[in-house]
Write a structure and sequence with these properties.
This protein is mainly α. The chain has one domain. The chain is 79% helix and 0% strand. The protein has 11 helices and no strands. The chain is globular.
Length: 291
């Protein structure tokens, strides 16, 4: 559980650092550089002999979506949103995880659709003043695409992890970041204006922090922590970075935010999360007793 707390704090700080230290730097390059650093960190664990070709291709595809596309959308959203808004809009990821998993196994869960809509209401209250602004809408859309990519990657990673059995996560992650490097690199080659790209010392230090710690080490620690707790606890920690990220962005990085709206909207979002987790737990207990 301590792993999840540490990772949540580091990720919460990342929102403000990206907005504060990397503003003006090409977003496509930021995504590529961050994932390239993570790839270098994990490249020493690349193994061919312990995997079949089809498994390598699946892992590369998962990494391309979960980390590559996710970061492309995520970093680009900072062009339209404040850091605390980016943190807020990550709140939907756990619900997407459940909805995507239900879609794969062809099962519809009306409760999670309701809680997803309730979460949207909570988020809407927090950003109500600017909800009809075009930039906010674009930023929100980009963040939802990012959340869906990250959620889909988690679901499919769990599936292939079960299929591969005792192979250590670090070997799987090396191939995930290979896929992430490929898609983010291709995107940056096309979209980045390399002639205009200049890096300051602050840029380099921040990218190293994000690539090595926030992406490389944290994603790995998150996986270790995830297998040590139940699904309900994991969902709670998955959302812990949201209030922390909002608080850090406003109090440490001095962004503007309406505290009352945040509390009211946050309460509604927490109710949605509680309903989703409470009824899921009851469902699991009933299923166990039936067996």
């Amino acid at each position: 559980m301590i792993y999840l707390i540490i990772v949540s704090i580091i990720w919460a700080l990342s929102f403000g650092l990206i907005k504060g230290n990397l503003t003006g730097l090409d977003s496509h390059f930021i995504a590529f550089a961050r994932l390239a650093i993570s790839f270098i960190f994990f490249s020493v664990f690349l193994r061919f002999k312990i995997f079949r070709i089809k498994h390598i291709l699946v892992l590369v595809a998962i990494g391309a979506v979960q980390f590559g596309l996710m970061y492309i959308f995520y970093i680009y959203s900072y062009k339209y949103l404040q850091a605390w808004q980016v943190a807020l809009f990550t709140i939907f990821t756990p619900i997407y995880v459940t909805l995507i998993n239900d879609f794969i196994i062809r099962r519809f869960n009306a409760l999670f659709l309701f809680t997803a809509l309730l979460s949207v209401v909570g988020a809407g209250i927090i950003v109500y003043k600017n909800i009809f602004h075009f930039e906010l809408q674009i930023g929100f859309l980009l963040m939802q695409l990012s959340n869906i990519c990250f959620a889909a990657g988690q679901v499919y990673y769990k599936k292939i992890k079960l299929e591969l059995g005792p192979i250590k996560d670090v070997y799987l992650f090396s191939w995930l970041f290979t896929g992430a490097l490929f898609i983010s690199g291709a995107n940056s080659i096309i979209m980045t204006d390399w002639k205009m790209l200049t890096l300051s010392g602050t840029h380099i230090y921040t990218l190293l922090y994000l690539g090595v710690l926030a992406s490389g080490v944290c994603f790995f620690l998150w996986n270790i922590g995830a297998v040590k707790v139940n699904a309900g606890t994991l969902a709670v920690y998955n959302n812990l970075k949201v209030p922390l990220g909002i608080a850090f962005s406003i109090w440490i990085f001095s962004e503007d935010g309406n505290l009352f709206k945040m509390i009211l909207g946050g309460v509604i979002i927490l109710i949605a999360i509680y309903l989703a987790e409470h009824f899921q737990t009851i469902k699991q207990i009933n299923k166990t007793q039936t067996k």
